[in-house]
Write a structure and sequence with these properties.
Elements lengths: L6 H9 L1 H13 L5 H5 L11 E5 L16 E5 H7 L20
Antiparallel strand pairs: 1-2
Length: 103
């Protein structure tokens, strides 16, 4: 039977000091850079965006890999949202200033 963690289990895990310490180690290991941006030749650092430690194989379905460094990578907020298909899909907001002259 598949061992699946509940949302409450995951919340408890992410708030634990063990995870918080490992998270910082992974970000440091990855040189404070989003690994997907880096693959594209883009430098994204903690000064540019929020960096998130991502489970390659999801915590929910692979709890045995929760603290395995080889299953963790640093992603920027944007790529973490893309990875989890949580990007905004509504109508793009119109830029009301597009016709304004700035000279």
């Amino acid at each position: 039977m598949l061992n699946v963690l509940t949302k409450e289990d995951r919340d408890k895990f992410y708030n634990a000091s063990t995870w918080r310490r490992l998270r910082l180690e992974i970000i440091k290991r990855d040189n404070y850079e989003c690994q997907w941006c880096k693959q594209k030749g883009i430098v994204t650092s903690k000064e540019d965006t929020t960096l998130i430690v991502d489970h390659i194989k999801e915590l929910e379905t692979h709890p045995e890999l929760a603290l395995e460094p080889s299953n963790l990578r640093t992603l920027c907020f944007y790529h973490h949202e893309v990875r989890h298909d949580r990007m905004f899909k509504g109508k793009k907001k119109e830029n009301k200033w597009i016709e304004d002259e700035w000279y």
